[in-house]
Amino acid sequence: MRHRIAVVGAGPGGLTLARVLHHLGHPVTVLEGDRGPDSRPPGGTLDLHEGLGQLALEKAGLLARFRELSRPEGQAMRILDPAGTVLRDWRPRPDERANPEIDRGQLRDLLLGPLDVRWGREVTRVVPGDDALVHFADGRQEPFDLVVGADGAWSRVRPAVSPVTPRYTGVTAVETSLDDVDTRHPDLAELIGDGAVAVYGVNRGIVAQRNSGGHVKVYVQLRAPLDWHAGLDLTDVEAARSALLALFDGWAQPVRDLVGRGTAFVHRPIHVLPVAHSWTHVRGVTLLGDAAHLMPPLGAGANLAMLDGAELAESVAADPDDLDAVVRAWEERMWARAGRWAAITTAGLERLVGPDPATALALFDEVQSS
Fold it and tell me: Which residues bind FAD (predicted)?
């Protein structure tokens, strides 16, 4: 039996679900509100873990191509204190493949491949049932046997199965970037190295991470009210730069330069869903990735979303006669795994951006030793 399956959202999780279904010969419809794959910046780099994101790509038949595109050297990590002293300098072995980095745009293009995405199809809500009905912003409607919400933190599909909405963690981030870092900012290129550099102080920190092509993403992290920037226009680059640098008064100048040489500033407050978020099973609708288990951005989210999608696709293809039972069983497995990772990342955020910077360093030591 060929079910009508719609995936709402063309992020890593939704595209992995669609690509594995395609790989297994099952038709699928991908609905995405963006006008095209390049309608907005794809975001920074992702580290794909061997037992999570890489496993999902293997199920899609894409692992070899991923290894060609990925940057194993991007696993390098350097930790400084606010005075600029190097506390840790981890560098991967030449054959280290545990968590290689890949740009989000490269991963998106890898997953898109032959998929036919319906770009510009903004979903406003989904009404569950034997024929789950997708409502679009242009007033049209379309029925499906299964609608999978892979549409992120502010999912339009989630209300069909759960009333829960994301809550603010008390930690916010401001993103900026450096272009052509090796030529224009060689001192900062040396500071960052091949992977990332992180500096933690009391209730705040700065993290800079290499992407491909000499591009670097820089993130200011701080504990603050959601409206901490009231009265500050972050689109005013000079005003934003001045306000952010004031938060790091007394820090080493090279560390401050990671922020001070930024070209634009974007506010990214960190929201989460409850650690054990689940719902009473609803026929015809389910969720995966951030739509299902939004957690702090500490390297797990995209990996889990991709494995969610790959495993759901395999389950549907393996037992197509009872779609509802397949989805129900998959949800139970997905909730259990996501709950474990949500607890880990929630505790991790508390340690990384908190009153004692030593807890951040200890967390990295634990991760490296494991």
Answer: 47, 104, 290
DSSP 8-state symbol, 49? P
151 is in an annotated binding site: no
pLDDT digits (tens, 9 = 90+) for 329-350: 999 999 999 999 999 999 999 9
Kind of pairing between the strands at 196-201 and 77-80? parallel
Model confidence over 278-319: pLDDT tens digits? 999 999 999 999 999 999 999 999 999 999 999 999 999 998
Q: Is 95 annotated as a binding residue?
A: no
Type of residue numbered 191: L
Structure tokens at 9: 């959202």
CATH code, domain carrying 121: 3.50.50.60
Pick the closest to residue 286 from 117, 137, 160 (CA basis): 160
Cα 129 → chain centroid = 30
Amino acid, res. 254: P
Q: In what order do the strands lie in the sheet with 216-223?
A: 86-90, 77-80, 196-201, 204-210, 216-223, 167-178, 266-272
Bridge partners of residue 144, in order along the sequence: 132
Q: Is 71 annotated as a binding residue?
A: no
Are residues 122 and 41 located together in one domain of the fold? yes
Q: Residue type at 343? A: A
- pLDDT confidence band for 148 (50 / 70 / 90): very high
| Residue count of the chain | 370
Domain boundary residue, one of 272, 292, 326? 272
Question: How many Cα atoms are found within 13 Å in the side-chain-facing hemisphere of 29?
Answer: 15
Identify whether residues 16 and 137 lie together within a single domain: yes
Model's pTM, two decimal places?
0.96
Which residues, in sequence order, are CB contacts of 241 under 8 Å at separation 6+? 259, 260, 262, 265
